Amino acid sequence: MALNAVKQVNLKINGLDVCVPEGTTILEAARSVGIRIPTLCFLKNINEIGACRICVVEVEGARSLVASCVYPVSEGMVVRTNTEKVRHSRQLTLELIMSNHRMDCLTCARNSHCELLALANELRIDAVRYANDQLPPQIEDSALHLVRDNSKCILCRRCTATCHKVQQVAVISPNERGFKTHIACAYDRDLGEVDCVSCGQCVVACPTGALTVRDDTEKVWAALDDPAKHVVVAPAPAVRVTLGECLGMPIGTNVEGKLATALRRLGFDRVFDVDTAADFTIVEEGTEFLDRLQNGGVLPMITSCSPGWIRYCELHQPDLIPNLSSCKSPQQMFGSLVKTYYAEKEGIDPRDIVVVSVMPCTAKKYEVQREEMRLANGCLPVDISITTRELSSMIKRAGLLFDHLPDGEFDEALGVSTGAAAIFGATGGVMEAALRTVAVKLAGVGMQVDFHEVRGLEGIKEAGYCLPGRTVRVAVASGLSNAKKLLDRVKKGEAHYDFIEIMGCPGGCINGGGQPTQPADVRSFTDLVKLRSEALYSQDVRTQLRRSHENPVLQQIYQEYLGKPGGHRAHEILHTHYAPMRKYRT
Ligand code: SF4
Ligand code: SF4
Ligand code: SF4
């Protein structure tokens, strides 16, 4: 046997022979032979606490049923997952969970993808024996991005584990004990009062309607119905590879053409693309980086595209604010170009334009109202930011048969983009896009297009590139716990970089808080991030132009309107500033 080889364990599950590595849980061992055990509180690598007891199974010799999500296999073990005793226990447990749940499924925002409701169907709960129909709603809607209703909370703790472990923001926890236990911020402060970074990762972790993204679709319908308004829309890079998932298509389907058609049929006056603005971000950020590199500016420079990361930096790492790029995010650059360049070109008063962005991200709802973004003409760049999920609900409500839609195109004025913009949605994509442009600026033509070292799903990636004149050391982190780990090393002098990309959500925008919610069953056993990001990288390869500065629309706008990248006008319109923002420590 090879040294350090993992010992294999043999057991029987429902009469089937199973052989798995030591340390595997019964849940995973069963899965390896095609047996699915239902779960509720379980989220792989995030919340493995065996608390809800929906996943119980019988183990020969054990005195009681065991929670399969935390119970490791052992040699010779005999497991049964579908006995009368198991079925009865799961049913009773679920009935008791439901007894403390305000069931208004008919009007609940989560009813089409609620894990609790799906489980009630699966376990054939056909009578509500312990109903508590007196439970009033417990709405907490102080934050701009999400709404909590603890009357629908089942205390699974998936949200708190995500906030603590994945994001290390730790602003929500179980408060009090016993029957009084409820999920809230310390001292029951409102979420809008604490250091929440608006990432929405708790919402995608939640199995029920206890956490929902704030719905801004009525504002969009109102704008579309107002003949005095010129309403423009643009989706973020990551939305085209996730929207299809909300509408019944396989994970990782690129629906860019149908997306453009759907937006047009919803009635928007112009259908643009945030990918175009992503190309501007790269050209501005690349110019800023080269300036810092060559003229002794603050390094490492850290990207500023992710508003969840920006809010984390302002709240939790304010000493790094000078390291942030001053570039606005692609969403804000897009709105800024619409309300300046496009408004002037078309002769439309920017106050009559409503800019709607479709984003993978809940922190964008917070970003759109930031005063730092306000333009010299008095306008905020973006008026309404909706998530991928909100757009899918508008498509359904409008009766558009999405899979029947022909492929359409974006309007050219702000709808032409490169492969570099496409990969913005995946962790490492912004860095790779920036390197493509920076390398050419330093070397002239002929430099490489692909920078494979910054791709991939690891939480932290590092690379060094020999560019003409010097080696550029870069790092990429996604998910705030990884960002914190990386930045701690930088601050201690243990790691040295010139340029760092940080995305607030693990895996980047393709896994943002506004993206399709998948049940734990899918999230725990399918690599969503991989499937979605592969779709973006294959779009990049198919695109004729793969470097942002080659975008002809971008070149035209610099020539006609902005002047040179990093110049005075470009700075006035496309850049901003950030400041420390501490509220309460929890
Ligand atoms: S959270 Fe689920 S079970 Fe509860 S009301 Fe909403 S849809 Fe129904
Ligand atoms: S939005 Fe993010 S930071 Fe805020 S509570 Fe949820 S997980 Fe935590
Ligand atoms: S809010 Fe949602 S994720 Fe959090 S404990 Fe309640 S049901 Fe679970």
Structure description:
With 586 residues, the protein is an alpha/beta fold. The chain folds into 3 domains: 8-95, Ubiquitin-like (UB roll) (Roll), CATH 3.10.20; 130-213, Alpha-Beta Plaits (2-Layer Sandwich); 218-574, Rossmann fold (3-Layer(aba) Sandwich). Helices cover 35% and strands 13% of the residues. The chain has 20 helices and 18 strands. The protein has helices at residues 26-32, 84-99, 115-122, 158-166, 201-205, 217-225, 243-246, 256-266, 274-295, 307-316, 330-346, 363-367, 388-397, 419-422, 429-443, 480-491, 520-525, 528-542, 552-562, 568-574; strands spanning 8-13, 16-21, 56-59, 66-67, 78-80, 139-140, 146-149, 173-175, 182-184, 211-213, 230-235, 270-271, 301-302, 353-359, 384-387, 460-467, 470-478, 499-503. The strands form 5 sheets. The protein has a 5-stranded mixed β-sheet, with helices on both faces. A 4-stranded parallel β-sheet has the order 12-11-14-15, with helices on both faces. Helix 9 (274-295) packs across helix 11 (330-346). It is globular, with a radius of gyration of 25 Å. The termini are far apart. The mean pLDDT is 94. The protein binds iron/sulfur cluster (SF4) (3 copies). Residues 101, 103-105, 108, 110-111, 114, 116-117, 152, 208-209 line the site of one iron/sulfur cluster.
Q: Write out the distinct hetero groups bound to the structure.
A: iron/sulfur cluster
Number of domains: 3
* Classification by helices and strands: alpha/beta
The biggest beta sheet is recorded as: 5 strands, mixed
Count of extended strands: 18
Counted by DSSP, the helix tally is 20
Global morphology: globular
